[in-house]
Amino acid sequence: MSRVKQYQKGEFEEQINTLKKLGFTNDEALIYHVILVSKECTVGEISRSINFSRSKIYGVIDNLLSEGIVVEGSTHPKSYYPIDPREIAEKRLKEIEGAAQEAQSDLYKLYQSKKVDYLETLTVKDMEIFSQVVSMCGRAKSSIDVIASILPSEMPRNVCRAFSDASGRGVKVRLLFPNKETNLDLSRLEGLFEIRLSSHIPPAGVILIDETEFCVGGLDVPDSNNTLLGMWMNQPDLARLVGLIFNNIYESSEIYES
Q1: What pLDDT digit, counting tens, does each position of 86-119 carry?
Q2: Could you give the CA distance from residue 167 to residue 150 in angstroms, rounded to a whole number?
Q3: Cα–Cα distances in Å, from 229 out to 133, 139, 159, 233?
Q4: CATH (one of 3.30.280.10, 3.40.250.10, 3.30.870.10, 3.40.50.300) for 121-255
Q5: For the domain 6-85, what is the CATH code?
Q6: How far is 218 from 162, CA to CA, in rounded Å?
Q7: Which comes out higher in pLDDT, residue 205 or 137?
Q8: 26-44 residue pLDDT tens
Q9: Cα distance between residue 215 and residue 230, in whole Å
Q10: What's the rounded Cα separation, in Å, for the pair 125 and 194?
Q11: Are 211 and 234 in contact (CB under 8 A)?
Q12: Could you give the residue ranges of the DSSP H alpha helices within 122-156?
């Protein structure tokens, strides 16, 4: 395949992906794209362009007409015109903004209407650990204390974002990293954090939320690439003990300076 054809294919795929981001199904995106390129199109012309059956095209066209994405043109033969994609984007944006407002008001009231009874203990592994950490950060009200046996450059972006979001809500976030001979990459972390380094970091990572719930995790075999294992616990008595251990290590650690 020539470079020109490769570029055209890549450009076409990007355009289809953009339409999908605007809420189009794959079939809707393909059919609308044909009409958009042609400016006016019949069902027969669409069928020849993307090899869809006429019955399938008519079904998708009905959806596009009802959404105001295409309009009818001539009647003999019947043709269709595309609506300006900027108008479609603006309409979808207003719909999303409206839905976001409802989520922050009515739907959030439902979320708060009943207290969630969390399990006291839960065993997690691999990416489940990071999902649990993100969920915990979302529940944090006053403090998040982290013993990070994994450096920030190796942390998933959603975990870094969870720390940053919590910091933005006014939650006090303290991060404790191993004092290794390496440059810490904190570029994924944005917010107000207390960051320190220690030579006495345990091989397992710990995250403590409000001295109420905590999660401990590490490799099932130290110094290996095996499965990550962890345990989440919602037990305040044990959490306070974890808090004491964290504070002892934290107070004897060095303040990180970039």
Answers
A1: 999 999 999 999 888 888 888 777 766 666 555 5
A2: 20
A3: 13, 22, 17, 14
A4: 3.30.870.10
A5: 1.10.10.10
A6: 20
A7: 137
A8: 999 999 999 999 999 999 9
A9: 7
A10: 28
A11: no
A12: 127-139
Give, for 42, the enclosing helix (H) or strand (E).
Answer: strand 41-42
Rounded CA-CA distance 194/199 in Å is: 17
Q: Which two tokens stand for residue 157?
A: 């972006």
For residue 92, the surrounding DSSP H or E stretch is: helix 85-102
Integer Cα distance of 228 and 127 in angstroms: 8
| Helix H or strand E encompassing 173 | strand 172-178
Task: Indicate whether 7 pLDDT > 70.
Answer: no
Determine the Cα–Cα distance for residues 222 and 213; give it in Å rounded to an integer.
25
Sequence ranges of the domains in the chain: 6-85, 121-255
